[in-house]
Amino acid sequence: MGVLRGWRSGWRAIGQQRGKAVVAGALCLAIALLSVCAAVLLDSRDDAMQRAQTVSQNLSMVAERDIRRNLEVIDLSLKAMVAGAEDPETMALPARQRDAVMFDQALTAKYLGAVLILDESGNILLDSGHVPPRVQNYADRDYFQAQKTHPDLGLLISQPIASRLSHGASIIVGLSRRINHPDGSFAGIALITLSVNYFRDLLAGLDIGPHGAIALFEHDGTLLMRLPQLPSQAGPLTSIRGGANFSRFVNEASGAFLGRSSFDGERRLFVHTKIEPFGLTLVISPAERDIYASWRHRASILGGAMIVLAIGYLLFAELLASELRRRSEVETELRVLSRTDALTTVANRRGFDERLEIEWKRMKRDGTNLSVLFVDVDRFKQFNDRYGHERGDDVLRSVALAMKRELKRPSDLTARYGGEEFAMILPQTDRRGARVLAQQICDAVAALAIPNEASEGRVVTVSVGVATFESDRRRAKDARGASSLDSAGELLKAADAALYRAKHQGRNRVETDDAVELETVGEDHLA
Description:
Layout: H1 2-85, H2 88-92, H3 95-102, E1 112-119, E2 124-127, H4 142-149, E3 156-157, E4 161-162, E5 171-180, E6 186-195, H5 196-204, E7 213-218, E8 223-227, H6 246-251, E9 254-260, E10 267-275, E11 280-285, H7 288-291, H8 293-338, H9 349-366, E12 370-377, H10 380-387, H11 389-406, E13 413-418, E14 421-427, H12 431-447, E15 462-469, H13 488-504, E16 510-512
Parallel strand pairs: 15-16
Antiparallel strand pairs: 1-2, 1-6, 3-5, 4-5, 5-6, 7-8, 7-11, 9-10, 10-11, 12-14, 12-15, 13-14
Helix pairs in contact: 1-8, 10-11, 11-12
């Protein structure tokens, strides 16, 4: 029974290993699928950022070109105003003709404010659309002082200021150029004011997401406008100088980078470009959360689906593994049953033959001993004829049980070889030990005292034939000159021959295979 338990445990272990292999394979495949999904999602995440950068750069390019073009038009008008103011003949023309020459019709555009010629004292000398000119002095303005002090300054864009002509109702920037006397001395400035709303309305049409921002500032950090307007933005002279990203804006002609806004702490993609030669920088900065919003939605759907799929696959694999284990249990039982005698519950002939071949190979490999016993119930046919087959079956079960009781090692095997004949395999057992065990079996069966009037002792007895392959002894040749044992089959035949002698020498006895000669195992037997 120990061997049968070993068979059952071994085959059950194989089934469990198969189940574990299925689960492990499913787990590896699920991990691989999730890894591929994660790689795809990460790649699409990078694509989302790249698309946002490309779109922001395109928007920046369009806005930059529009701002540059309008500022160039204004600068051309300023140059024409300077040329007219420096020409005595133009200045000598009647007021209406002079204004028609000095002031282009384009200067009536929506976002333009005052178009003025200021004299060297800062007073309005000429005023587009107003004859006589309005009365106002601008000598204290920074742009006026800068033009007066620096003859070669060229075009100057002022900081955002409150318009005096509108009594502070609008915020403007002043674009100015210097006017000189014939001797090169300061004669005043040409000034055109532009509403900051121009930049705000132009850039407000750009779609940069619900949390994005757009900023336009001068190179000294003065913020001309920002969308959206922040509550903390105090007045027209808000500066971004000293902010975490300012140095990159100033030192790079254009670029894109991820950073955190110094205004609201929002993490954004900053796409910036300089508007030269006007000393301005435009920054379009969509929020990182807006960039990834649609990606997160897709990722949550796809990732969730893949996780559900992976879990479902693992559950299916576990169910499959469980079924495999169940089937393995069934197959194990079938295998055990196919090698078990149904009547006596010991191994049958198939199980005996398989085990004998295994032990023979082990014996030759390890150079150990191997013994085989053939056990036959004496006068069993007569017992069946006298007492009936049902009592005969009881005898076989009792004999098998008595034989199993005498076995002390789990490596030993008891089998029903056929009919009333049993066989035993005793690994690592020499002839003496096998004979002792055989005699114990004879005694144990006789001690059962099962009546059998046909038997010589009037009780059920057995005869035992013993054959042993010993690595350190020789077996004498039989009368026919038989060669040494070189197969499990020959060992079995030797045990059968010993049993035959036990039958013919009185029964209820043990006979060994002394009629053939043991031969030491040579190198070829140990191969």
